[in-house]
Amino acid sequence: MNKIPVGILGATGMVGQMYVSLLANHPWFEVTYAAASPRSAGKKYAQAVTGRWHVDGSAAGKNGGGNAGGIGELIVEDANDVSKAVDAHKAGRCTFVFSALEMGKDEIRALEEAYAAAGIPVVSNASAHRWTPDVAMLIAEVNHHHTGLIPIQRKNRGWDKGFIVVKPNCSIQSYTTPLWALMQKGYEIKRLIVSTMQAVSGAGYPGVPSWDIIDNLVPYIGGEEEKSEMEPLKIFGSINNDGVLENAAEPKISAHCNRVPVSDGHTACVSLEFGTKKPSIDEVKKIWSEFKSLPQEEHFPTAPERPIIVREEADRPQPRKDRDADKAMAVIVGRIRPCTIFDLRFVGLSHNTIRGAAGGGILSAELLKHKGFI
Amino acid sequence: MNKIPVGILGATGMVGQMYVSLLANHPWFEVTYAAASPRSAGKKYAQAVTGRWHVDGSAAGKNGGGNAGGIGELIVEDANDVSKAVDAHKAGRCTFVFSALEMGKDEIRALEEAYAAAGIPVVSNASAHRWTPDVAMLIAEVNHHHTGLIPIQRKNRGWDKGFIVVKPNCSIQSYTTPLWALMQKGYEIKRLIVSTMQAVSGAGYPGVPSWDIIDNLVPYIGGEEEKSEMEPLKIFGSINNDGVLENAAEPKISAHCNRVPVSDGHTACVSLEFGTKKPSIDEVKKIWSEFKSLPQEEHFPTAPERPIIVREEADRPQPRKDRDADKAMAVIVGRIRPCTIFDLRFVGLSHNTIRGAAGGGILSAELLKHKGFI
Amino acid sequence: MNKIPVGILGATGMVGQMYVSLLANHPWFEVTYAAASPRSAGKKYAQAVTGRWHVDGSAAGKNGGGNAGGIGELIVEDANDVSKAVDAHKAGRCTFVFSALEMGKDEIRALEEAYAAAGIPVVSNASAHRWTPDVAMLIAEVNHHHTGLIPIQRKNRGWDKGFIVVKPNCSIQSYTTPLWALMQKGYEIKRLIVSTMQAVSGAGYPGVPSWDIIDNLVPYIGGEEEKSEMEPLKIFGSINNDGVLENAAEPKISAHCNRVPVSDGHTACVSLEFGTKKPSIDEVKKIWSEFKSLPQEEHFPTAPERPIIVREEADRPQPRKDRDADKAMAVIVGRIRPCTIFDLRFVGLSHNTIRGAAGGGILSAELLKHKGFI
Amino acid sequence: MNKIPVGILGATGMVGQMYVSLLANHPWFEVTYAAASPRSAGKKYAQAVTGRWHVDGSAAGKNGGGNAGGIGELIVEDANDVSKAVDAHKAGRCTFVFSALEMGKDEIRALEEAYAAAGIPVVSNASAHRWTPDVAMLIAEVNHHHTGLIPIQRKNRGWDKGFIVVKPNCSIQSYTTPLWALMQKGYEIKRLIVSTMQAVSGAGYPGVPSWDIIDNLVPYIGGEEEKSEMEPLKIFGSINNDGVLENAAEPKISAHCNRVPVSDGHTACVSLEFGTKKPSIDEVKKIWSEFKSLPQEEHFPTAPERPIIVREEADRPQPRKDRDADKAMAVIVGRIRPCTIFDLRFVGLSHNTIRGAAGGGILSAELLKHKGFI
Hints:
The structure is a homotetramer of 374-residue chains. Chain A is an alpha/beta fold and 374 residues long. Helix content of chain A is 29%, strand content 21%.
């Protein structure tokens, strides 16, 4: 089959590079359009990232051994100039875009809307539209039904073909899917207290100064706790009869977010309280081990075989050893045990720049293709 | 004044070395007796630690600049041979001992009892006697009144001058004193969920393999969560009219203990629930900033000026930058804010091998001297 | 084609686990025999490594997603009992063995000889036989012709089918192949001064205590400098008419070996002096970029496409970002520039547990199969 | 005695903060003037560094325990406005300044000259004037006689009381003093090849992104190798009869400079070649152990008791364990052994932001006071 031509906005930044790297051999999508800041515009992609390629291997192709489907030769366009993308769209070189824009929130919000208004679907990694009521914040295994917001969004905005979907913050990905799996089996989750230990790559590049993290940790990440406490409620929400997404009322979340000297992989220690109906520890393990959702059933190419991998060893998961499990797209859980105060304790881990960013965005795009939106 | 001659059991191990280092210029105590495993016995101390001196600087004296009060020349005795210490005791060269023994729990328990039975007080860093009912587990600023167990212990055992006191686990020191300060002001603490990020030095030497901690963390420390959940209840307990220490019933604690790539300094993220009476955030800060206890009032040489230092910056405390505050004996707290589920959240930090081990032991000894027990 | 059944001695140790992991999907070889210490003997492999699986993912299969060709079900044999391997050999379940034994040098030497004497070829990762005159120390791209020692060795020892080959120390792999490539083009190398920065995995497990490496480095690795200065001379040696391997006389090497806080990947800073004939910097780059040898020409499955990858960026190679290049089997060089004292400076990097250990051993085995020795 | 009032230019940056911290209890100097960028001007110092205090403890005083001699209350002036310093100078509040300016080289050069022209001596940490012929680049134990350039500089420039001295790059401090000690004993040093492993604090703040240094190292530091190869020649130079500083012709240096995951402390692996006269290893150790210079003889307050500390352990010096030796002002050397190519190998270590920056600058100022220049 012919691959769908896709564009990347913010293609030269850290998340943009992850998209380039992960899409190098994608069976459905092919990167044929790259846009970034005016500083990069007009340069070949390989040249634009020279001296600032942050992903493993080289810009010319992962591990220096080949070339990423010709992406290195693409001329980078100015991401602020939507007309360039429209031209490419008309010419069949940009069916939709992944947004990895790095600019002010208001600018991103407006720019993503401009792309959508121009007929180009936007799958965004940015936080700008996460709380826009008619924009779905997707985790493909959890709320794939929220794609139902797309027709509503189009109608609200008078958009024909374009639309916007976003992904949630990377910090919540290591426990949101496990919570959902339990909720799906009828176990209400009332409250949870979570403490995260997050990788430096979550702060982008240059991000955390090494002076602040060698032999150290920082018990604070600006805005992260608020996001962690609110975003799951939108993800767990339901679209009502009026086509409005109503947030879930529960679980109530209290988050402590910490930065630790780990390159990739966010780890979360979770204590949670169920409603009246409480599963046994064995039941929890069974639910998580067996959990599958639409991406698994439909065999999306980027979907992990198992969205949740249960580790029985006393000391797992660990970020360096487990973050790459199943293409770095699985959530790995361990230390599943009772809580002395609430009901259940566990440790969750997910790869923040793959599952939590570019890989998650690609999985959302696969979902959208499956549902016929792109 | 003449200094009190003290001995160190397990003097060549990591904690033993910390005792040697911290006592080098102590105004009250002087190390005049060193005992270790049979392998080291008979050697000069400097020779016994050659090639395995883990503390900063050199065995010949901190920073290689001098010599630690002649300790390098001491002949190391066999710690298993109590008679050697008794001889030294009689000769006025070993008034009491710090125990930093590293052997099986049962062996330590028996050996410490043998020293005490022989008339030599034991201030122990080991966990062996923490749950022995008539042994006080001391944090000098918190339960100095538990020294009241010493006469009871002597009576129970038929010991004349010897006795045993212990210090609690290093993992709880960053929040136990803050809890106590609040309790002292009449605020009941019902429950708390704590997640720790603990330094590798807490595992001793060789301890954590570097393969397991570079670009990684380990969400498990054997036995640590159980200790964290129980030990504060003994520390907060009261001696009843029958001379029995009754553990406190609260707070109920749920602990997640993690090992992180930090050399020294344990950090804890705490969410806690008060009883009916709840202090404001400002009240909490005021109580902690102003908290002083017996070690401060009596100006014990190792006591920090302020047992609790409140940091107002959004991103503090941090282990590398704050662990050495006030001779590494203070607890540093920050991020004091409401909890969305319980009442209060904060981050606590303390230096695990100084405040949490050797320094804490020395402070206990100062307390015991002040109270006339040594 | 039917795969060749292979055994692993020391299969439960760190290098043994790497062999298991790397051979999981090998097109020529299949692990059908595993031996380790008596402690592991009699257990299933998966059970024997429970709680001490050090490689990424799980013992049940990399990334927990499958199972490593049934190896988890293999009953581990006692490596000291050669008769077990002989039985397996006769039963067609152990054509040859990879030795990743961890015991005393003398014991390893004797045990490897016992396997060879019993007719079982040994491809060893251990250092025991590196300086045995009739044992080839192989880097497949460099001295594949040293397999010519095998018939001589067999004759010397009266062995029929068995033999021993070894691989060199991991510390020299990041510059030995580049040196060889230059020598092949007629450039004599007289002297070199090298300073290495070596990963902790080179010390095995538990290896370097984390206390010694966090925010630190250790400018000493026991025995490593001596090996680094001598081993290349054997590798560059020639088999004379009497069937004796004569070591090369040059280059003269001075090595500084350092341990740094890196998990995998040894980096070397090299200054070298040519003989009279001196290549230009461009010539050096060309020679390295174009270098291929027998493993490339014959397309051995584990061979990197390019044994030497030249990086032009000012700040590469870097261990975390480049060690996995081309299946972690390539040497990556950069900072190729003149030396102000000698002639040439460069930085070399190779993955120490793959290229420098298990992967290198597998490549040697592929060479031996190609040459008909197994 | 009354303390000399001093100013700090660039007082809010990382090195400026180190000056503030180190001068907090200095017996001769007192910080009474602080200048920084226009952004900080007009604020109290404590306020200006809020949220960006990078040194241990807090801006209000090391370890949060006190207050740094009132510095926190100083109103920060605009460093570009020399007239402010002149006013302070006239008012007896700024006898001389330490320059820790962070701006373009040309701007720094001009600004430091403006202060000097206005009669205010400048002790600079910046590299701008290192190669200005009549500016001394001082290491107090090595070339204290280069203060002889000050009268020449004043005459050249028509300056009355002002002058400029600088300190060399931090990367060379771990071996320059040892080289000098040998040269002083008549041992000519012809050539040396050095490979450094440098701490991240050498790059300032924010400096090295943590993404680039966790589980990694960077074998390149822009401009550092050139500085390392040239600066010792100026330091070892002599002032000729015409009052011109003539650089030394030797040693010829080849440097490899690497950034490693260490917070503070630069380590260097050195191979060097003597002239005809070659000391034995024991002689080298004796020369280094016994080396003292003017700062020691005259007991300057910041001078280490021993400028060079010789460690005999096989695995020392190590940055985290040894960098703080003797107020972090000593050079620690170890692994003193013959070189297989040149004559001598050793490892040197020095604290880059104390000995190599602020502490070294303070020692230079003490030298200048001793010689009557301030």
